[in-house]
Amino acid sequence: MPLISKVLIANRGEIALRVLRACKELGIATVAVHSTADADAMHVRLADESVCIGPPPSRDSYLNIHQIVAACEITGADAVHPGYGFLSENAKFADILDAHGITFIGPTADHIRIMGDKITAKETAKALGIPVVPGSTGEVRPENALEIAREIGFPVLIKATAGGGGRGMKVARNEDEVEEAVSTARSEAAAAFGNDAVYMEKYLGKPRHIEIQVVGDGEGNAIHLGERDCSLQRRHQKVWEEANSPALNVEQRMKIGEICADAMRKLKYRGAGTVEFLYENGEFYFIEMNTRLQVEHPITEAITGIDLVHEQIRVASGAGLSVTQDEIVFQGHAIECRINAEDPRTFVPSPGTITHFHAPGGLGVRVDSGAYQGYRIPPYYDSLIGKLIVHGRTRVECMMRLRRVLDEFVIDGIKTTLPLFQDLINNQDIANGDYDIHWLENYLAQPAE
Ligand code: ADP
To answer: pTM score, two decimals?
Structure first.
């Protein structure tokens, strides 16, 4: 792949390391960027070169476009991988890199924009043949809200057009609740996103969150890599993910996967993406598309054997996809546990120094983490310090392995979410794969034994 020779990784933590590993395998030189708080981070140590881009606050470092472009110029990086979060879904960043002749390892700025606006995303998805949640066709205003709600049928959900992170959403269960729900959602949206536009959807009571991984080459070829079930969430943050979903059979998987891949072909989508759905009573309802690599991508890699970052780099450099849809084989079952530096019950962040760190090993075990013994977790960023990914030939084998692996994992000096997973692995509903998007919050609301 001659088109890319040096990649600057505009991120930190486990994902910076993840991208770096893929670059090394492909013989591509790497540049790490870091804030002053991350000078001793693992991604900085392992990169061929590193550049300090500013003080700890993200807006002054990892979100500072000028500094990142300058770091590309100084080091001669000809491409940027944005990871997830930070600038990964920033269309302006993609445009600026383009103007500097630097390859953005991701989709076109136009596709980022389309999917970044929830109303446009939903309209686009619908036009491409993806099933969407019944709802308003455009913006909902206080004058027309009641009429639209009646048409959709109660309960309804009012959501921010510019939404993200589950903020600015309000449920109206009946006609009396519409006015207040719309006005609260609008003011929350204005405060959180500087944009008070809202829209309305049918509120689904007990859905699962199921998402489809896609990759396109930008020329009209695209594949899907099956689904991930991310229903176990707390405050809309995913905690435990699995592939395949315990709720789908092969026919359902291939059908929804093919719908998404076909949509990406029509769109001429380039790069990795995830089409997110709520799933209830056998029906899929599109909620959004993420135009980047996701945190939980390794479970898809585990069951397909395909390195998604390799594919991202290939398509960004014009080398095309390494596989066709017929060559993809789904093997076994994988589960990812997100290990956060947080109290396992209250989820209060627990930054500090890791005094002892021992990662588990053995067949079917992957640990993606920048943590090590003596590492001081800075208080400025996301509390995700690692991901544990376990693969087995069946879901039962995967769970048995996960139980063994959780016993082996040692992280001392800080609190982590590891004990939560030790509870979950012994729970009957989890064993049965019987859970929806509210399950974990209900479980956490029960008093601890
Ligand atoms: P955000 O971008 O803010 O994360 P999403 O549209 O992805 O917004 O929705 C976030 C979460 O909100 C979903 O994972 C689901 O838990 C819930 N949600 C969204 N839309 C609906 C709906 N129509 N009915 C029920 N729950 C929903």
So the answer is: 0.95
